[in-house]
Structures are given as C-alpha cells and as structure tokens.
Design a protein that fits this description.
single chain, alpha+beta, Peptide Methionine Sulfoxide Reductase, Chain A, 6-stranded mixed beta sheet, 7 helices, 8 strands, globular
Length: 223
C-alpha cells in the first residue's frame, strides 16, 4: 500500500505539468435484458473484481438493498490471500469485493450494471487506472449457476450494443472462493476520504453512482 500511495502522490504532484492521469472512464450501461426478478428471500452474495477494492467497495456500499460489502481476494488459494503476496501478481487472486444484498430490493443484474457503468473500466486488461497487474483484472466470480448465466448474457448484451468503444475483457471465474482482506482495507474509502489515491481515483466513482443512478443511491452506506 505504501508503494501505491507514493506512486500516486508523485503522479499527482506532476499532473499540472504533464496533464491529468487517465482515470477509468464511466458510461451509463443499459439495463440488463435478462435479469433475476425482485423477490423476497434470504440475502444473496455477489463477488466482483474491478481494480483496487477500495473504490469498488465504496461504490457498492452506497446502493439501496446492499446490506454489506467486504474487500478481499478471489481467484487464488487461501494461503496466498494476503495483501503483500497478492501484490506480486503471481497468486491468481484479484482484489475483489463480496456484496451481500437483499434480492427483494436490488437484482443481480442491477449490480452488474453498476459494475460496468461506474465501478471500473472493463476494457482495461489486467489494470485499472494507475494500478497494473493481474490482481487488478476485471472479473466476475459467480456464486450460483443463475449468476453465471446472467453475467454471460449481460456481457454479451454490452458487447453487441458496443456500450464500450473497446473490447470487454472481463473474465467469468466460477468455483473460486472469496477471502476477506486485512482489517485495515475494510471501509478504507470512508475512513480515508482525503487520501490522494482515493480523491483522484475513487471518489469520482461514488459521485458517478449518485449522478447516474439517483434512484439506487443510499445516503447511508452499508455496514
């Protein structure tokens, strides 16, 4: 984390001379044609990866119907689910978030729509913004067969609609557990709103959610 902060601080310090750093682009992706209907039931789980988990967590904790969001790792083994090890890019893990949501209030398709609209840029291969490496890849980790079907259908829909000018490189990775990150990564955006990385890369995503999807915005973040 220290290296990430130092690099970003240095880049921000030279931005006035070299021009702004290229942050992730945002779009307003269309609603999914195929989605699970809202229905009462037990809490559901979604796991997504879209670059640094600080910002992705900050977006999803502000959606109505989301009960909790945890930052963590998915794609690799439990033994290597450690920040300093994942940072080598050699563990198979991606920085990810685990979302617990009420299926009566928000659908899996809606969460996918937010992921592709404001949470990250799905056309960046093994990177997001200033962060590079497979640990920052765009990935969906379906927790059920239905989620896998819905995710594939939505990615195909966006590709056909050419929602993004470039190719969507998001991977669908099934059967890969989620492991919570270290405590200091949880609620990082809200705990560090003035940190340069957060200010430049992540707060705009949260603002983008509120601006583009006002009916989904929750003034009170999930626990």
């Amino acid at each position: 984390m220290m290296l990430r902060n130092l690099v970003v601080a240095a880049l921000l310090g030279t931005a006035a001379c070299s021009g702004a750093i290229a942050a992730e682009r945002m779009v307003t992706a269309p609603a999914p044609i195929t989605d699970a209907p809202l229905a009462a039931g037990r809490l559901q789980t979604a796991v997504f990866a879209g670059g640094c988990f600080w910002g992705v967590e900050g977006v999803f904790e502000r959606i109505k119907g989301v009960q909790s969001v945890r930052s963590g790792y998915a794609g690799g083994a439990k033994a290597t689910a450690l920040y300093q090890v994942v940072g080598t890019g050699m563990t198979g893990h991606a920085e990810a978030v685990e979302i617990k949501y009420d299926p009566a209030k928000v659908s899996y398709g809606t969460l996918l729509r937010i992921l592709f609209s404001v949470a990250h840029d799905p056309t960046q291969l093994n990177r997001q913004g200033p962060d590079t490496g497979s640990q920052y890849r765009s990935a969906i980790f379906p927790q059920t067969t239905e989620q896998s079907t819905l995710a594939r259908a939505y990615v195909a829909q966006l590709a056909t609609a050419k929602t993004w000018p470039g190719k969507i490189v998001t991977t669908l990775e099934t059967g890969k557990p989620f492991y919570p990150a270290e405590g200091y990564h949880q609620n990082y955006l809200r705990a560090n709103p003035d940190q340069p990385y957060i200010v430049y890369n992540d707060l705009p995503k949260v603002a983008g959610l509120k601006e583009r999807f006002p009916t989904l915005w929750s003034e009170k973040p999930a626990v």
